[in-house]
């Protein structure tokens, strides 16, 4: 049997490696437009900041490495046609001088085409010095340009925008972040929590403009100014961190059903066309809280989906469950994360909730180096936990993961408040900040009931 995977990102490579893990005989080919595979886009901002030394360090494997696993990788090749009734596809092999058209047949096709950066239609986005941030090539170009620049505007205050802004700041640039919504990280955090992050980032010397879209980028050949609201800002570069759009063209061509945003798949990661699977940023997922389809553009989701698709292709039963979109990030010294629903998003979806909060410390009060930690737990009026947000200078990721487990298991804030957590002065408080937030939620529920 032959499987062809379109895409050499997290989802495509995870699918290929897992098929080989479960099946020694399957003929596996991965086709990608890029010249690199198996690198971590998530690390691009940290190369800019200098925390990771070079872009070479974020490439985990070379295409040749996969030959050892008997996986064929074709790089610099763009698939442009899928003819599924003949179970074959056509691709264009591009190098600097020529472009050759080729054909390959398959029994199973996996579409792992990811997403492209969304660039809003505003004047000036094609000027030199305007960048998107998606691939390692984008990272290299941004770094090279930034090395000869003194000012940057980052458009979009989601995770990627903020991480990139901090990277550029650490490179020595004067950085302005602009976000058209009234808060940072609007997809995952409530405004009260995002204000804590905003304070930190502003203290680090990054200017933040909220509630104004970028209107226009001005320059003759290269960027000179950005117009944001009434303000004209001098800048040498503009980074567009304005979201993504799933790449669904090939799926449409193959006759796969498309949902509200992306390719529709079942729990096996199978599209509406039975021999075609789809994984990663190009598919829609089921939201565990709202019970609606949503997007989950995360490396973790891509890798997990690749594993599920691989198992099903080789005949091992596996299901991809509803997502909670657990995320974490680190900007400078500050870590933050969220899982499940924010209060704002729950309310938008018609779910009545309360929020329990705590502000505490990451170690015993007297222990040197204890850091402030802020926790917010979102609970339904019946006490079921549906979301959590945490900000601190340490140990955020493991707490978010604990809460991911709690939410997935339907734990209530009463149960969480009674749970046993470990304690030692250098590592934690005797009552964990999560418990304190759960207790606060219980108090609020009690007040509501009286
Ligand atoms: C700067 C940045 C930081 C991030 N940080 C995090 C983080 O901290 N945590 C986290 O979980 N996630 C993070 N993400 C998101 C994560 O990187 C993505 O969700 C993940 O990479 C998606 O993987 P994918 O394989 O679906 O798509 P992609 O990585 O986009 O791969 C798509 C592949 O398809 C190929 N392709 C597309 N069309 C064709 C075609 N027609 N022919 C041939 N090949 C084609 C492309 O060349 C590429 O190889 C970050 C992303 C970025 C950009």
Instruction: List bound small molecules.
Output: flavin-adenine dinucleotide
What does the overall shape look like?
globular
Give Rg in angstroms.
23 Å
Taking all residues together, what is the mean pLDDT?
97
CATH topology of the largest domain: FAD/NAD(P)-binding domain
Low-confidence stretches: none
The overall number of domains is 3
Helix content range: 25-40%
Give the strand content: 25-35%
Number of strands: 25
CATH class of the largest domain equals Alpha Beta
- How far do the termini sit from each other? 65 Å
What is the number of helical segments per DSSP (H or I, 4+ residues)?
11
Computed structural class: alpha/beta
Question: Would you write up a description of this structure?
Answer:
- The chain is α/β, with parallel strands linked by helices and 450 residues long.
- It is built from eleven helices and 25 strands.
- A five-stranded parallel sheet has the order 3-2-1-7-18, covered by helices on one side.
- The chain is globular.
- The termini are far apart.
- The protein binds flavin-adenine dinucleotide (FAD).
- The site of flavin-adenine dinucleotide has 33 residues, from helix 1, helix 2, strand 4 and helix 7.
Provide the descriptors you would attach to this structure in a database record.
about 25% helix, about 450 residues, binds flavin-adenine dinucleotide, FAD/NAD(P)-binding domain, five-stranded parallel β-sheet, alpha/beta, 11 helices
């Amino acid at each position: 049997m032959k499987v062809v995977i379109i895409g050499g990102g997290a989802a495509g490579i995870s699918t290929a490696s897992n098929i080989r893990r479960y099946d020694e005989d399957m003929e596996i080919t991965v086709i990608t437009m890029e010249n690199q595979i198996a690198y971590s886009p998530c690390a691009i901002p940290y190369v800019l900041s200098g925390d990771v030394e070079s872009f070479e360090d974020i490439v985990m494997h070379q295409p040749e490495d996969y030959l050892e696993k008997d996986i064929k990788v074709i790089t610099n090749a763009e698939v442009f046609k899928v003819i599924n009734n003949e179970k074959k596809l056509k691709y264009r092999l591009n190098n600097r001088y020529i472009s050759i058209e080729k054909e390959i047949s398959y029994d199973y096709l996996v579409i792992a085409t990811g997403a492209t950066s969304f660039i809003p239609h505003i004047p000036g986005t094609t000027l030199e010095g305007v960048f998107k941030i998606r691939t390692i090539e984008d990272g290299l170009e941004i770094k090279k340009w930034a090395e000869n620049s003194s000012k940057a505007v980052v458009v979009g205050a989601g995770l990627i925008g903020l991480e990139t802004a901090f990277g550029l700041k650490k490179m020595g640039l004067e950085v302005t972040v602009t976000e058209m919504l009234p808060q940072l990280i609007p997809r995952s955090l409530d405004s009260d929590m995002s204000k804590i992050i905003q304070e930190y980032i502003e203290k680090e010397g990054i200017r933040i403009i909220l509630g104004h879209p970028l209107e226009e980028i001005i320059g003759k050949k290269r960027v000179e100014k950005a117009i944001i609201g009434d303000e004209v800002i001098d800048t040498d570069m503009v980074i567009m961190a304005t979201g993504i759009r799933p790449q669904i063209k090939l799926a449409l061509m193959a006759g796969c059903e498309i949902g509200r945003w992306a390719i529709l798949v079942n729990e096996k990661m199978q599209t509406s066309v039975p021999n075609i699977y789809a994984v990663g940023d190009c598919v829609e997922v089921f939201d565990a809280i709202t019970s609606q389809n949503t997007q989950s553009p995360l490396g973790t989701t891509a890798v997990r989906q690749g594993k599920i698709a691989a198992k099903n292709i080789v005949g091992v039963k596996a299901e991809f469950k509803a997502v909670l979109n657990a995320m974490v990030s680190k900007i400078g010294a500050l870590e933050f994360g969220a899982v499940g629903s924010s209060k704002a998003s729950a309310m938008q979806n018609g779910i009545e909730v309360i929020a329990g909060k705590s502000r505490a410390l990451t170690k015993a009060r007297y222990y040197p180096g204890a850091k402030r930690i802020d926790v917010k737990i979102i609970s339904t009026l019946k006490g079921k936990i549906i979301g959590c947000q945490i900000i601190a200078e340490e140990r955020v990721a493991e707490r978010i993961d604990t809460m991911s487990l709690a939410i997935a298991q339907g734990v209530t804030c009463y149960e969480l408040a009674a749970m046993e957590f470990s304690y030692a002065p250098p590592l934690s408080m005797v009552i964990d900040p999560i418990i304190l937030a759960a207790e606060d939620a219980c108090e609020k529920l009690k007040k509501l009931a009286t």
